[in-house]
Design a protein that fits this description.
binds flavin-adenine dinucleotide, globular, alpha/beta, TIM Barrel, 10 helices
């Protein structure tokens, strides 16, 4: 069996204090020996510098790191410059996304969909980068239909992606079905489930509404019933997510990608239950 592909995601800190906190978080999470850390990238250019600075710092510490790169609002010229900077920084992996334009931002720019970005990266840089793309077992919120969304995913992979990371979900069957359909459509690359620890009910509901992740009714009702009792929310959340991760790995998932939210404790607690 191949080594499971465990990776951990951060967002770039906005302040010096946030950067200091992230350093401490990373030091703790490094003890888990993830294959790589990834660092998100804000659409519209908000955190491009923060992404690159954070990735460089992780690489300098001797760990592997992948910047996320979104193409919406970008031009061929601006993306070419970013890729050149990535290469010059010794970056060998990238998570390639369309991204989302902030509302009222206007036209999408020269790239409409992520498959165009993957094609561009391959045309510009050959095999330099290991490219990950996003996958949506519960269907991307803007997709015309599940079928169209699957086809869009297949197009992205065929454009040259090496692997995929999914949006988070709490229904394991959605993942297994998605993988089965992708395989039938000829996709052979690893599809790694994205795992969102449950630590905060309000935040989870807000994120899930935005990205189209379904919180199963029984999970939602139980979390709501704990009110301000954060210890119970965390304990129950850990049980739910551990069960999900165990089921995914037992069912053949090639690894897990943890949405750490820049916190060490939830990912560490989960990890300790899995190993
Ligand atoms: P695409 O694959 O281009 O798909 C977007 C939508 O367009 C889908 O509904 C798809 O069905 C549809 N579509 C695709 N091709 C076509 C076509 N030819 N015709 C019609 N419809 C089409 N966002 C950030 O801003 N920064 C990040 O760092 C970031 N990291 C992420 C990491 C992961 C693992 C995931 C799962 C998501 C991340 N996102 C991030 C969110 C992501 O940018 C949004 O979900 C975005 O709306 C879609 O990006 P995509 O790359 O999946 O787009």
């Amino acid at each position: 069996m191949e080594t499971p592909n465990f990776s951990i995601e951060f967002f770039p800190p906005k302040t010096a204090e946030g950067a200091e906190k992230l350093r401490a978080t990373r030091a703790k999470l490094s003890e888990l020996h993830p294959k790589y850390f990834s660092v998100t990238f804000g659409a519209g250019g908000t955190t491009q510098r923060g992404t690159l600075d954070t990735v460089r710092e992780i690489l300098a510490a001797g760990e592997d790191a992948a910047p996320h790169l979104s193409c919406v609002g970008g031009t061929r010229e601006s993306l070419r410059a970013i890729l050149a900077e990535f290469k010059a920084s010794g970056i060998k992996r990238v998570v390639a996304l369309r991204g989302d334009l902030p509302s009222g931002y206007g036209a999408a720019g020269e790239f409409r969909y992520a498959n165009e970005l993957v094609e561009f990266i391959r045309a510009e840089t050959g095999d330099w980068f290991h490219i990950e793309v996003a996958a949506y077992p519960e269907v991307h919120p803007q997709a015309k239909s599940p079928r169209d969304d699957l086809q869009a995913f297949v197009r992205k992979v065929n454009a040259g992606a090496d692997a995929a990371i999914t949006q988070y979900f709490y229904n394991a069957d959605a993942y297994f079905q998605f993988v089965e359909q992708a395989r039938k459509a000829g996709v052979t690359v690893p599809i790694v489930p994205g795992i969102m620890p449950i630590t905060n009910y309000t935040q989870l509901m807000r994120f899930s509404d935005m990205c189209g992740a379904e919180i199963p009714r029984w999970v939602r009702l139980k979390l709501a019933s704990f009110g301000d009792d954060t210890a119970s929310i965390k304990e129950f959340g850990l049980d739910v997510v551990t069960g999900l991760a165990q089921r995914l790995l037992a069912g053949g998932a090639p690894g897990l990608h943890f949405y750490s939210m820049n916190q060490a404790a939830p990912t560490t607690a989960l990890w300790q239950r899995l190993v």
